[in-house]
Amino acid sequence: MQGIEKYSGALQSYLDEVITLKEPIRLYEPIKYIVSLGGKRLRPVLTLLSCEMFNSDYKKALPAALALELFHNFSLIHDDIMDEAPLRRGKETVHQKWNLNTGILSGDAMLILAYQFFEEYDPIMFRELAKLFSKTALQVCEGQQYDVDFETKNDVTIPDYIKMIDYKTAVLLGASMKMGAIVANASEECKTNSYDFGRNLGIAFQLQDDYLDCFGNPETFGKQIGGDIIANKKTFLYIKAIENSSEEDKMILEKLLSEKPEDPTSKIKTVLEIYNKSGATKETLNEISSYTQKANIVLSKLVISDENRKILLSFGEKLMKRNV
Ligand code: GRG
Questions:
Q1: pLDDT tens figures, 20-38
Q2: Distance (Å) from CA 186 to ligand 1 centroid
């Protein structure tokens, strides 16, 4: 087995072949635009990798892999609308480049297109994939709603937060792994373990995303640094900082995360100082390691070759060292 580059290459060729510009242009152009901005292609690569790991031709998993990438990109367009975000992958967001209605409608079309790709499989496999996809998509919706609710809730706990990121982000990574196993006709045990591997990695990945949102390199991260603070998001960093801080810092933090100043520069600076001072930054990094470890424990249970296990292990490690 070669490195993971062959999967992103194969996905790109498939994507170029099937996602084409057609009338009405204003519906399909934004779809082409967002998928052409690239991104890490994490979910489809996991699907193709998982399919090959369970001894099947990874090309069979291309429609499922693309369905997941389209779904992910659809959710990014709608998430950016909800967050009023100006940037995605270092470029203008769809609603910013076109307008709100274009973002809504092109996003909706992407969700339908995603479902259509499952029609490439026989009825039994179609049912299993579509069932997993619908369950996962609904959980993503629920995770997004919890995230929105947390903005105005003052008693969000760490378990509440982990549940939110599990639904909003991790279940899709779990489903990406499991879809590869389904297409490969792997055993039920392999399907479950591959799902759990992706899900634990997904929690670590979202915690890392929150960390990078605060401390990432603006040149490589591709999103506005401090975006979560501007949006008053109760992230792991925030909840830990509230738990650990003096009464005075706690009050400052609570006040800052209830305001939306026109210029957020000083708000971001003060919040980051409290995150560091309270030890919340360090605890977030520890939690990222802990979920990566959990993923690796599940990985050790997967019935795959040692060579494939190493590929998945290094995939997880690279993901946790990322700066994008
Ligand atoms: C599910 C019907 C339905 C609606 C969607 C808007 C919404 C409801 C959910 C938002 C889900 C969301 C955007 C979660 C964030 C997940 C996340 C970590 C995104 C960043 O992923 P990367 O880093 O992005 O893999 P790239 O750009 O590399 O693809």
A1: 999 999 999 999 999 999 8
A2: 27
Tell how far the Cα of 68 is from the centroid of ligand 1, in angstroms: 11
**Phi and psi based region of residue 47 (left: phi greater than 0; alpha: psi -120 to 50; beta: remaining):** alpha
Q: How far is CA 167 from CA 75, 80, 136, 229, in A?
A: 13, 18, 8, 21
Ligand 1 atom 26, closest CA: 39
Mean pLDDT score across all residues of the chain: 94
The residue nearest atom 24 of ligand 1, judged by CA position, is 39
List pocket residues of ligand 1, CB cut-off 6 Å. Answer: 39-40, 42, 75-76, 78-79, 89, 137, 140-141, 144, 168-169, 206, 209
Task: Give the whole-number percent of the chain exceeding pLDDT 70.
Answer: 98
Best mutation site among 78, 132, 165, 235 for ligand 1, i.e. most ligand atoms within 8 A of its Cβ?
78
**Each residue of 257-304: pLDDT tens digit?**
999 999 999 999 999 999 999 999 999 999 999 999 999 999 999 989
Report the pLDDT value the prediction gives residue 2, as an integer from 0 to 100.
54
Which CATH number, 1.10.1740.10, 3.40.50.300, 2.40.50.140, 1.10.600.10, labels domain 5-320? 1.10.600.10
Buried/exposed 286-308: b ≥16 CB within 10 Å, e otherwise: ebbeebbebbbebbeebebeeeb
Output the six-digit token pair for 69.
């990438």
- For ligand 1, atom 3, the nearest C-alpha belongs to 141
For the whole prediction, is pTM greater than 0.85? yes
CA dihedral angle for residue 199, residue 204, residue 205, residue 211, rounded to 10 degrees: 150
